[in-house]
Amino acid sequence: MSTKRCSSLLALLAATMPVVLSAQEAALPALLAEADTANPEILAAKRAAEAATARVPQAGALPDPMLGIGFMNVPVTSPGLGSDMMTMTKVQVGAQLPWPGKLSLREDVARFGAEAAGWELERARDRIRTEVKATYYQAYFVDRALEVTARNETLVSDFALLTSSKYAVGTGAQPDVLKAQVERSRLADQLIALREERTGLVARLNALLGRPTDTPLLSTELPEEVRAVALLSSTDELSFASATLSGVLPGSSDPSGPLQSVADLERQALEHNPTIQAHVRRVAAQERAVALAETAKLPDLSLTAAYSYRLGLGDFFEFMVSAPLPIFAGRKQDQAALEQAATLAEQQARYHAMVNDVNADIASLWADLQRARDQIVLLNEGILPQARTSLSSATASYQVGAVDFLTLLDSQVTLYRHELDYHRLLADFANNLAALERAVGTEVLR
């Protein structure tokens, strides 16, 4: 085997080391800002919040007064205002006055409903942002998988040339040539599948951004702060969820590292999680609805004032106060109060169930992040360097006939799989971090 070919193979092996992308990146913050202004679901939630806010002053306003003008006792045979002494012209004004406190309770119900709609807007925004991040991180993995697969295809192509050269001079076997060709075809097929997957991811991301589905997406990269946290190692901040890994790689006794503790995250979720906060407002609105239902038997007064004029007899004035009689309160108002009280109890129970679900999600995602970080560090600092060294050694040994081609091919496949695992874990870590931030409702890194 020539020195030139050996050098080219070693150069390809060196290319498997992590590199900084030089291509223009599709900045995630810019995509998130675009989703805030263009996503249809966020825009719909904004309009719903505006509509709920507009209902607040309506709920606290008095009913419109009624104005009436009419004529009474007009003769049919000889119509006219002055043809009969009984004919009367009348002007009437009426208004309904709710019992004191009812309007303020109605306004409170609407106000808390508007606040809940505002938190629903935040909930929609958080959900869309999380979906954008998840799609973007999956596209990041596919981009890295395309790079790794293309690099390995080139490497296997050189293996195929190497086996063909050895077979031509009688030092290799034909099955080795066929194995190299099969592996190269497998990688080519994998490239096709990855490109198709990326097309689907870009279409999904464009839909979330309100773009045409064929809008191209430039190369992707993890945010630097996410990568820094995922790759923390050999520092006082890093700790391992697994006691066995602590003996392999250095770490501290802090169980959370750069992440806040589960207890701290759960406390923050009570204050910042939009789903919880929206439900808190619904409970408050329902408490006011219960109080309003308890005042249903207190009468709303109807006031009427009228002025009448009868030709030749002078002016007349009328005033009337009327109120409903709650004679069916046992079947109507009392049952309505029971209904609202039962609804309040339901809302309170749902609140506790919601908090329990959020806490469970936080604990699960926190554990997933710790586990993924352990695996990322172990791959980056242990397995990948060993796999690269193994492939370099197998390549050199195969060239001098010290190992067979199957050993060389196995070393290449092993490194390929570990590189894919590494980038998949980075994408999963970033995705779980985004999901944790959605569950908490705010930033979770220290």
Q: How many E-type strands?
A: 4
What's the CATH C level?
Mainly Alpha
**Fraction of helical residues:** 55-70%
- Mean pLDDT equals 84
If helices are DSSP runs of H or I spanning 4 or more residues, what is the number of helices?
Answer: 11
Overall 3D shape: elongated
* Count of domains: 1
What is the radius of gyration?
37 Å
Q: Please report which band the strand proportion falls in: under 5%, 5-15%, 15-25%, 25-35%, 35-45% or over 45%.
A: 5-15%
Order of helix and strand elements from N to C terminus: HHHEEHHHHHHEEHH
Largest sheet descriptor:
4 strands, antiparallel
Within the largest sheet, what's the order of strands? Answer: 1-2-3-4
Please tell me the CATH architecture by its name. Answer: Up-down Bundle
By CATH, the topology is Outer membrane efflux proteins (OEP)
CATH superfamily: Outer membrane efflux proteins (OEP)
Unreliable segments of 5+ consecutive residues: 1-25, 234-255
**Ends: how far apart?**
55 Å
| Structural class by sheet pairing and helices | alpha+beta
Helix and strand topology:
Layout: H1 3-14, H2 28-38, H3 40-59, E1 66-72, E2 88-97, H4 102-168, H5 174-209, H6 224-230, H7 243-246, H8 262-272, H9 274-294, E3 301-310, E4 314-322, H10 333-399, H11 405-440
Antiparallel strand pairs: 1-2, 2-3, 3-4
Helix pairs in contact: 1-4, 1-10, 2-4, 3-4, 4-5, 4-9, 4-11, 8-10, 9-10, 10-11
